[in-house]
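Example A, followed by Example B.
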Amino acid sequence: MILRRALAREVLLTSFAVTAVIFCIFVVVRVLGFLRQAAEGIIPVDSIFVLLFLKVIAYMDVILPLMMFVAMLLVLGRWSRQNELTIMAASGLGLSHLLRPVAFLILVGALIVGSFSMVVGPMAVRSVGAIEHDLKSRTDIVGVSPGVFMETQAGRAVYFVEQLNKENGRYEGIFAWGSDAGREGVVLAQSAHRHTDPEKGQVFLVLENGVRYEGAPGDSVYRVINFERYTLRDRSTMAAPVKYPLHGWETTRLWHSGGPHEQKEIAWRISKIVVLPILMMFALGLGRVAPRSNRYVSMFSALIVYFTYTNLVTMACARIPNGGAGAVTLLVVVHLGFALGASYLLWCRSRDEPLWFWARPRQRTAG
């Protein structure tokens, strides 16, 4: 009982530690990408952390099986180095004694991965799509940070905003430069706000109390216009309905659709749940390292098993839209093949038998 609780506790704690390390790497990579988009004016700075959180949630169903797999390998590898598994074997407790805590870990992990794969992950993808769609439908000046000169995506205008009043959505201290047909224009305004025409579906930026300078580069004469209200029409129209990718659809919607691509997405979501118990069985068999043996060989073998298994599952799921029932059968064969391989590996390790039949000693019969 103590060993079972210790295994479950240490695997869970190690999973949290490994997950934290992977999250730090993931966060750094994603933050750099979001900062680049914020610097280009594609997204506002205050939306970075919301998008980052949703991206992490969307990838949890892929990260968690790998984390539990690695955590199991690390815990059993440490027990092997500290001769705890050897003491267990001397006491008559083999690897089969650890099947109950491993089953508990598989149950907990499957429930978490299943919830993320079927419900939470697609919900996060839809939230990210809605936020990105809303940001793309806004005018270019929304992505400008106060106190920073920002070039628009088209590269034909530069904006500068001194302050942004978040309560009423008004901009203060506006500078705008634009170029069109060889003529340049500079606009200075005290304040500005957005206005939407509901009939025509067009978005306008209304500048108030300012001046416009217009002319061609190299000319000695520029036209100066003082204005109380100056309206700039946004090139974008009213936003179209959000179109989510398949991995953002609800599982019930995918199931009722029944198309080949929808079947592929359903198979992939179910496969992420099926992969977890098979990987845990592999980890239980590969985690035990013989005394004075190289533990890096076992870890390298485990990584080969993981990448081979997940890549084959991905390839089998990708063939479903074109392969139909044959591709589904191939996916089932992949899962069953690796499940049998994990069971055989665990059976051999629990009986201290070599993996290959020809390497086993033959029993001699008395003559």
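Example B, a separate protein, is given below in the same form.
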Amino acid sequence: MPARATAKKAAAPKKNGLQTPPLPKGKPESLGLSSARLKGLSDAIRREVDKGTLPGAVVMVGRKGKVAHFDAIGRQGPSSDAKMRPDSVFRIFSMTKPIVSVAIMQLVEDGKLLINDPLSKYIPSFAKTQVGEVRDGKIHLVPMKREITIQDLLSHTSGISYEITGPGPIQSLYTEAKIYRRNMSNEEHAEVIAGLPLICQPGAEWNYSRSTDILGRVVEVVSGKTLSSYLTDHILAPLQMTDSGFHIEEERAHDRLAEPFANDPWTGNKVVYFSMTQKPISESGGGGMVSTAPDYARFAQMLANGGSLNGERIIGRKTLELMTSNHLGSDVKIATTHIPPGHGFGLGFAVRLEKGMAPYPGSVGQYFWGGAAGTQFWVDPAENLWAVLMVQAPGQREYVRVLFRNLVYAAVEG
């Protein structure tokens, strides 16, 4: 088994001319895919661009270790005539979560933490966090029945919430705390969260949350590095993901930034996103990264390979197996659209449990996640298949993702 890259080897300096190496290509038919159907995938996305659903997109499909389809469609932004590029840079938002989850499990493999450790072992303030029971519209604080664990954070059963999942009294407290600011440190962010009430008892419910932001702080505490430094040393540089991080330098970003419509084309709502070239103080482990399709494809291919790429072991095969298994027991309440029917949740990924129930094709054991602006990736071990969708179209994300999945699976022949 290839050894994981050492920090010394991984921390090669980033130069302006450094490019992400391409994954090997293969003819679709040799990989059991239909070239005509893959062309139809691009044509369907192009029709959406022509209708004004989204400015543009980059799509990639890989099978059996090779890229079968890679296309840049439409424009990089609504106010630009620049065509979408294969290496256009996107805000990936919550597609940051799987990367940070892998980082946590690397530390488990290094013997530096256990996933059943209490969170307070690393961030003591969480020992005093209380649960907010909402009755008659008011929050009543009660003690935790047990402490939050690292596993709770990985599986989003911690009781921590998100301001974006409201409306609700506790989500309103998150909004009032302004924890979305990019000018606060991960340490400060974690302390603010620790002082807010949990939305439920730890382990009782699945709630999409800032749990992975807290995991980012745990990485810092355990490793003694900033989150960006740890990710670069142990994941991004070993995988040669040269355009991924919490920002991209302006010299590298030139003519490559993908932007959304200023106003949502379906609702008219204003869309305001962070600057991808501005280096933040807050390195959000839950949603702060930018990346490209070729970069994220290398992460997806590593996962499809069982945790390694080009001789670099990023995560152990059995550890990845644990991460991509369902961790939600039958007693865990799930009341959310973030987990589709027929799915559960692992340690950083949604996991398909049933052939049916979901409104799109897939295989049992498939795992995935996406980002608020519409980006998505998945890995299907049963089909030895992965796919990456890069868009900046928040209001259209569910529609475009289902369309993308349907058409990728329609191309599977052998």
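On Example B: The first helix runs from residue 7 to 10.
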